[in-house]
Amino acid sequence: MPTIEDLQRDTDSAVAVAAPTSVATPAPPRTFTPRKKKKPWKSWLLFLLFAGPNVALLVVFTYKPLLQSLYYSTLQWNLGSASAIPVGLGNYVAWFTDPGTSRVVTVTLIFTVATVGGGMVIGLLFAVLLNRKLHGRGAARTIVVAPYVLSGVAVGLLWLFVFDPNFGITAALLDAIGVASPPWYNDPHWALVMVIIVYLWKNVGYVALIYLAALQSVPRDLLEAASLDGASPVRAFRNIVLPLLGPTTFFLSITTLLSSLQSFDIIQAMTRGGPLEGTTTMMYQIYQEGFQAGRAGYSSAVATILFAVLLVVTLIQMKYVEKRVHY
Protein backbone atom coordinates (compact mmCIF):
# COMPACT_ATOMS: atom_id res chain seq x y z
CA MET A 1 0.00 0.00 0.00
CA PRO A 2 1.49 3.31 -1.05
CA THR A 3 2.24 5.80 1.71
CA ILE A 4 1.54 9.48 1.80
CA GLU A 5 5.17 10.21 1.05
CA ASP A 6 5.00 8.09 -2.14
CA LEU A 7 1.86 9.88 -3.33
CA GLN A 8 3.45 13.28 -2.69
CA ARG A 9 6.58 12.19 -4.56
CA ASP A 10 4.52 11.02 -7.58
CA THR A 11 2.59 14.29 -7.61
CA ASP A 12 5.75 16.38 -7.61
CA SER A 13 7.17 14.29 -10.46
CA ALA A 14 4.03 14.76 -12.54
CA VAL A 15 4.05 18.49 -11.99
CA ALA A 16 7.70 18.64 -12.95
CA VAL A 17 7.03 16.69 -16.17
CA ALA A 18 3.99 18.76 -17.06
CA ALA A 19 5.69 22.10 -16.45
CA PRO A 20 7.03 23.53 -19.68
CA THR A 21 10.71 24.26 -19.77
CA SER A 22 11.46 27.96 -20.19
CA VAL A 23 14.01 28.83 -22.80
CA ALA A 24 15.95 32.07 -22.22
CA THR A 25 15.44 34.31 -25.20
CA PRO A 26 18.15 36.87 -25.93
CA ALA A 27 17.21 40.50 -25.33
CA PRO A 28 16.72 42.55 -28.43
CA PRO A 29 19.75 44.71 -29.23
CA ARG A 30 19.55 48.31 -27.98
CA THR A 31 19.44 50.88 -30.66
CA PHE A 32 21.22 54.22 -30.20
CA THR A 33 19.95 57.24 -32.02
CA PRO A 34 22.84 59.54 -32.88
CA ARG A 35 22.57 63.04 -31.38
CA LYS A 36 21.93 65.64 -33.94
CA LYS A 37 24.86 67.98 -34.39
CA LYS A 38 24.19 71.67 -34.36
CA LYS A 39 24.62 73.25 -37.69
CA PRO A 40 27.69 75.51 -37.86
CA TRP A 41 25.76 78.43 -39.23
CA LYS A 42 23.45 78.36 -36.21
CA SER A 43 26.42 78.62 -33.85
CA TRP A 44 27.82 81.55 -35.82
CA LEU A 45 24.40 83.19 -35.84
CA LEU A 46 24.16 82.87 -32.05
CA PHE A 47 27.67 84.27 -31.67
CA LEU A 48 26.89 87.26 -33.88
CA LEU A 49 23.66 87.87 -32.01
CA PHE A 50 25.43 88.26 -28.65
CA ALA A 51 28.87 89.55 -29.63
CA GLY A 52 27.97 91.45 -32.78
CA PRO A 53 26.84 94.74 -31.14
CA ASN A 54 29.94 94.89 -28.92
CA VAL A 55 32.28 94.06 -31.79
CA ALA A 56 30.60 96.70 -33.96
CA LEU A 57 31.03 99.35 -31.27
CA LEU A 58 34.70 98.43 -30.82
CA VAL A 59 35.32 98.60 -34.57
CA VAL A 60 33.55 101.94 -35.01
CA PHE A 61 34.77 103.77 -31.90
CA THR A 62 38.15 102.13 -31.15
CA TYR A 63 39.84 100.34 -34.03
CA LYS A 64 38.70 102.64 -36.82
CA PRO A 65 39.90 105.84 -35.03
CA LEU A 66 43.14 104.05 -34.17
CA LEU A 67 43.84 103.20 -37.80
CA GLN A 68 42.84 106.70 -38.89
CA SER A 69 45.22 108.19 -36.33
CA LEU A 70 48.04 106.02 -37.67
CA TYR A 71 47.29 107.27 -41.17
CA TYR A 72 46.98 110.94 -40.16
CA SER A 73 50.32 110.72 -38.33
CA THR A 74 52.03 110.29 -41.72
CA LEU A 75 50.52 113.52 -43.06
CA GLN A 76 51.31 117.18 -42.70
CA TRP A 77 47.72 118.21 -42.21
CA ASN A 78 46.22 121.20 -40.47
CA LEU A 79 42.87 120.68 -38.81
CA GLY A 80 40.09 121.78 -41.13
CA SER A 81 42.31 121.96 -44.20
CA ALA A 82 41.05 120.29 -47.38
CA SER A 83 44.53 119.13 -48.41
CA ALA A 84 47.33 117.19 -46.73
CA ILE A 85 50.92 116.44 -47.64
CA PRO A 86 52.34 112.95 -46.98
CA VAL A 87 55.51 113.22 -44.89
CA GLY A 88 56.03 109.60 -43.85
CA LEU A 89 57.74 109.52 -40.46
CA GLY A 90 58.43 113.25 -40.48
CA ASN A 91 56.05 113.99 -37.59
CA TYR A 92 57.70 111.33 -35.45
CA VAL A 93 61.16 112.69 -36.21
CA ALA A 94 59.97 116.21 -35.40
CA TRP A 95 58.60 115.11 -32.01
CA PHE A 96 61.71 113.17 -30.97
CA THR A 97 64.01 116.01 -32.01
CA ASP A 98 61.91 118.79 -30.46
CA PRO A 99 63.73 120.37 -27.46
CA GLY A 100 60.47 120.57 -25.52
CA THR A 101 59.81 116.84 -25.79
CA SER A 102 62.14 115.97 -22.90
CA ARG A 103 60.21 118.32 -20.61
CA VAL A 104 56.88 116.83 -21.63
CA VAL A 105 58.16 113.29 -21.06
CA THR A 106 59.62 114.27 -17.67
CA VAL A 107 56.34 115.83 -16.54
CA THR A 108 54.45 112.76 -17.74
CA LEU A 109 56.76 110.40 -15.84
CA ILE A 110 56.61 112.41 -12.60
CA PHE A 111 52.85 112.75 -12.79
CA THR A 112 52.34 109.05 -13.57
CA VAL A 113 54.69 107.69 -10.91
CA ALA A 114 53.31 110.03 -8.24
CA THR A 115 49.66 109.36 -8.99
CA VAL A 116 49.95 105.60 -9.54
CA GLY A 117 52.34 104.87 -6.67
CA GLY A 118 50.82 107.37 -4.27
CA GLY A 119 47.28 106.36 -5.15
CA MET A 120 47.91 102.67 -4.51
CA VAL A 121 49.70 103.27 -1.18
CA ILE A 122 47.13 105.76 0.13
CA GLY A 123 44.24 103.66 -1.19
CA LEU A 124 45.56 100.57 0.57
CA LEU A 125 45.91 102.49 3.85
CA PHE A 126 42.35 103.76 3.54
CA ALA A 127 41.10 100.25 2.76
CA VAL A 128 42.83 98.78 5.83
CA LEU A 129 41.34 101.53 7.99
CA LEU A 130 37.83 101.18 6.56
CA ASN A 131 37.98 97.40 6.94
CA ARG A 132 38.06 97.75 10.72
CA LYS A 133 34.94 97.82 12.87
CA LEU A 134 34.68 101.56 13.47
CA HIS A 135 31.78 103.77 14.41
CA GLY A 136 30.42 105.50 11.31
CA ARG A 137 32.33 103.19 8.98
CA GLY A 138 29.61 103.30 6.30
CA ALA A 139 29.64 107.10 6.15
CA ALA A 140 33.44 107.12 6.03
CA ARG A 141 33.44 104.70 3.10
CA THR A 142 30.99 106.91 1.24
CA ILE A 143 33.10 110.02 1.85
CA VAL A 144 36.26 108.33 0.58
CA VAL A 145 34.68 106.91 -2.59
CA ALA A 146 32.42 109.87 -3.45
CA PRO A 147 35.06 112.07 -5.19
CA TYR A 148 35.74 109.33 -7.73
CA VAL A 149 32.27 109.68 -9.26
CA LEU A 150 32.50 113.46 -9.56
CA SER A 151 33.35 115.27 -12.77
CA GLY A 152 37.04 116.01 -13.18
CA VAL A 153 36.32 119.52 -14.44
CA ALA A 154 34.11 120.28 -11.43
CA VAL A 155 36.76 118.93 -9.05
CA GLY A 156 39.46 121.02 -10.71
CA LEU A 157 37.44 124.23 -10.52
CA LEU A 158 36.59 123.56 -6.88
CA TRP A 159 40.21 123.03 -5.89
CA LEU A 160 41.24 126.24 -7.61
CA PHE A 161 39.52 128.08 -4.78
CA VAL A 162 41.15 125.78 -2.21
CA PHE A 163 44.66 126.60 -3.51
CA ASP A 164 44.01 130.30 -4.02
CA PRO A 165 47.08 132.05 -2.52
CA ASN A 166 45.00 134.94 -1.16
CA PHE A 167 41.63 133.53 -0.11
CA GLY A 168 42.08 129.75 -0.27
CA ILE A 169 41.84 127.27 2.59
CA THR A 170 45.47 126.17 2.15
CA ALA A 171 46.63 129.79 2.43
CA ALA A 172 44.65 130.22 5.65
CA LEU A 173 45.97 126.99 7.17
CA LEU A 174 49.57 127.78 6.27
CA ASP A 175 49.22 131.34 7.50
CA ALA A 176 47.99 130.02 10.86
CA ILE A 177 51.34 128.28 11.39
CA GLY A 178 53.37 131.16 9.99
CA VAL A 179 54.15 129.67 6.56
CA ALA A 180 53.61 131.57 3.32
CA SER A 181 51.44 129.97 0.67
CA PRO A 182 53.49 128.51 -2.22
CA PRO A 183 53.04 130.06 -5.68
CA TRP A 184 50.74 127.28 -6.87
CA TYR A 185 49.74 129.08 -10.08
CA ASN A 186 53.03 130.72 -11.07
CA ASP A 187 55.70 128.12 -10.34
CA PRO A 188 55.83 125.07 -12.67
CA HIS A 189 56.95 122.70 -9.92
CA TRP A 190 54.29 123.76 -7.42
CA ALA A 191 51.65 123.68 -10.15
CA LEU A 192 52.54 120.06 -10.88
CA VAL A 193 52.36 119.23 -7.17
CA MET A 194 48.95 120.88 -7.01
CA VAL A 195 47.60 118.86 -9.93
CA ILE A 196 48.96 115.62 -8.44
CA ILE A 197 47.27 116.33 -5.09
CA VAL A 198 43.92 116.98 -6.76
CA TYR A 199 44.21 113.88 -8.94
CA LEU A 200 44.98 111.73 -5.89
CA TRP A 201 42.07 113.23 -3.95
CA LYS A 202 39.69 112.38 -6.76
CA ASN A 203 40.88 108.89 -7.67
CA VAL A 204 42.19 107.36 -4.43
CA GLY A 205 38.65 106.27 -3.55
CA TYR A 206 38.60 103.88 -6.50
CA VAL A 207 41.78 102.16 -5.30
CA ALA A 208 40.47 102.03 -1.73
CA LEU A 209 37.20 100.48 -2.88
CA ILE A 210 38.90 97.69 -4.85
CA TYR A 211 41.38 96.98 -2.05
CA LEU A 212 38.56 96.96 0.51
CA ALA A 213 36.69 94.30 -1.45
CA ALA A 214 39.87 92.22 -1.64
CA LEU A 215 40.57 92.58 2.09
CA GLN A 216 37.11 91.33 2.94
CA SER A 217 37.80 88.12 1.00
CA VAL A 218 40.98 87.27 2.96
CA PRO A 219 40.32 84.07 4.99
CA ARG A 220 40.08 84.90 8.68
CA ASP A 221 41.33 81.49 9.75
CA LEU A 222 44.76 82.29 8.28
CA LEU A 223 45.02 85.46 10.33
CA GLU A 224 43.83 83.66 13.46
CA ALA A 225 46.38 80.89 12.92
CA ALA A 226 49.14 83.47 12.50
CA SER A 227 48.03 85.20 15.69
CA LEU A 228 48.12 81.90 17.60
CA ASP A 229 51.64 81.31 16.30
CA GLY A 230 52.71 84.62 17.79
CA ALA A 231 52.88 86.72 14.60
CA SER A 232 52.38 90.44 15.12
CA PRO A 233 49.68 92.25 13.11
CA VAL A 234 52.33 93.95 10.97
CA ARG A 235 54.08 90.67 10.19
CA ALA A 236 50.78 88.92 9.44
CA PHE A 237 49.83 91.73 7.10
CA ARG A 238 53.18 91.62 5.31
CA ASN A 239 53.47 87.83 5.00
CA ILE A 240 49.82 86.82 4.59
CA VAL A 241 47.59 89.68 3.50
CA LEU A 242 49.88 91.37 0.97
CA PRO A 243 50.59 88.14 -1.01
CA LEU A 244 46.85 87.43 -1.11
CA LEU A 245 46.30 90.95 -2.45
CA GLY A 246 48.68 90.24 -5.35
CA PRO A 247 45.99 89.79 -8.05
CA THR A 248 44.23 92.97 -6.90
CA THR A 249 47.50 94.93 -6.89
CA PHE A 250 48.30 93.67 -10.38
CA PHE A 251 44.86 94.71 -11.64
CA LEU A 252 45.10 98.15 -10.06
CA SER A 253 48.61 98.72 -11.36
CA ILE A 254 47.33 98.36 -14.93
CA THR A 255 44.07 100.30 -14.59
CA THR A 256 45.54 103.20 -12.62
CA LEU A 257 48.53 103.45 -14.97
CA LEU A 258 46.28 103.65 -18.03
CA SER A 259 44.04 106.21 -16.31
CA SER A 260 46.98 108.36 -15.19
CA LEU A 261 48.63 108.50 -18.61
CA GLN A 262 45.29 109.55 -20.13
CA SER A 263 44.49 112.23 -17.55
CA PHE A 264 43.23 115.43 -19.14
CA ASP A 265 40.23 117.01 -17.42
CA ILE A 266 41.87 118.14 -14.17
CA ILE A 267 44.85 119.64 -16.01
CA GLN A 268 42.56 121.46 -18.41
CA ALA A 269 40.40 122.86 -15.62
CA MET A 270 43.24 123.96 -13.33
CA THR A 271 46.40 124.90 -15.25
CA ARG A 272 45.81 124.34 -18.99
CA GLY A 273 49.27 122.80 -19.18
CA GLY A 274 51.07 125.75 -17.62
CA PRO A 275 52.79 127.61 -16.26
CA LEU A 276 55.69 127.29 -18.69
CA GLU A 277 54.44 123.82 -19.71
CA GLY A 278 55.02 122.66 -16.14
CA THR A 279 51.90 120.47 -16.21
CA THR A 280 51.86 119.53 -19.90
CA THR A 281 51.72 115.75 -20.17
CA MET A 282 51.73 113.78 -23.40
CA MET A 283 47.96 113.50 -23.26
CA TYR A 284 47.55 117.24 -22.88
CA GLN A 285 50.09 117.88 -25.63
CA ILE A 286 47.88 115.90 -28.00
CA TYR A 287 45.06 118.33 -27.25
CA GLN A 288 47.28 121.39 -27.58
CA GLU A 289 48.78 120.38 -30.92
CA GLY A 290 45.53 119.12 -32.41
CA PHE A 291 42.89 121.60 -31.24
CA GLN A 292 44.84 124.71 -30.29
CA ALA A 293 47.70 124.73 -32.81
CA GLY A 294 45.65 122.88 -35.44
CA ARG A 295 48.50 120.47 -36.30
CA ALA A 296 46.36 117.38 -36.69
CA GLY A 297 49.08 115.25 -38.25
CA TYR A 298 51.61 116.06 -35.53
CA SER A 299 49.00 115.52 -32.84
CA SER A 300 48.16 112.10 -34.32
CA ALA A 301 51.84 111.18 -34.20
CA VAL A 302 52.02 112.04 -30.49
CA ALA A 303 48.83 110.03 -29.89
CA THR A 304 50.34 107.05 -31.69
CA ILE A 305 53.51 107.27 -29.58
CA LEU A 306 51.42 107.40 -26.39
CA PHE A 307 49.42 104.39 -27.57
CA ALA A 308 52.66 102.48 -28.20
CA VAL A 309 53.92 103.38 -24.72
CA LEU A 310 50.68 102.19 -23.12
CA LEU A 311 50.78 98.96 -25.11
CA VAL A 312 54.41 98.19 -24.27
CA VAL A 313 54.03 98.96 -20.56
CA THR A 314 50.88 96.83 -20.32
CA LEU A 315 52.54 93.90 -22.08
CA ILE A 316 55.57 94.13 -19.80
CA GLN A 317 53.31 94.12 -16.75
CA MET A 318 51.37 91.11 -17.99
CA LYS A 319 54.50 89.17 -18.91
CA TYR A 320 56.82 89.82 -15.97
CA VAL A 321 54.82 91.32 -13.11
CA GLU A 322 52.04 88.72 -13.33
CA LYS A 323 54.57 85.94 -12.67
CA ARG A 324 55.00 87.30 -9.14
CA VAL A 325 51.27 87.25 -8.48
CA HIS A 326 49.89 84.37 -6.39
CA TYR A 327 46.37 83.41 -7.41
Structure description:
By secondary structure, the protein is an all-alpha fold. It has a domain at 99-324: MetI-like fold (Orthogonal Bundle), CATH 1.10.3720.10. 68% of the residues lie in helices and 1% in strands. The chain has helices spanning 4-18, 40-72, 90-97, 101-130, 137-145, 152-162, 169-176, 188-215, 220-228, 233-244, 246-261, 265-270, 282-292, 296-321; strands spanning 75-76, 85-86. It has a two-stranded antiparallel sheet. Residues 14-22 have low confidence and may be disordered. Keywords: Cell membrane, Membrane, Transmembrane, Transmembrane helix, Transport. Residues 105-317 form the ABC transmembrane type-1 domain.
List the topology elements.
Elements: H1 4-18, H2 40-72, E1 75-76, E2 85-86, H3 90-97, H4 101-130, H5 137-145, H6 152-162, H7 169-176, H8 188-215, H9 220-228, H10 233-244, H11 246-261, H12 265-270, H13 282-292, H14 296-321
Antiparallel strand pairs: 1-2
Family: Belongs to the binding-protein-dependent transport system permease family.
Keywords: Cell membrane, Membrane, Transmembrane, Transmembrane helix, Transport
Protein name: Sugar ABC transporter permease
Main beta-sheet strand count, sense and barrel state = 2 strands, antiparallel
Secondary structure category: mainly alpha
Task: Give the class-level CATH name of the domain at 99-324.
Answer: Mainly Alpha
Q: What is the level-2 CATH architecture name of the domain at 99-324?
A: Orthogonal Bundle
CATH superfamily of the domain at 99-324: MetI-like
Tell me the β content.
Answer: under 5%
* Helicity level: 55-70%
Pfam families: BPD_transp_1
Family: Belongs to the binding-protein-dependent transport system permease family.
Protein name: Sugar ABC transporter permease
Domain ABC transmembrane type-1: 105-317
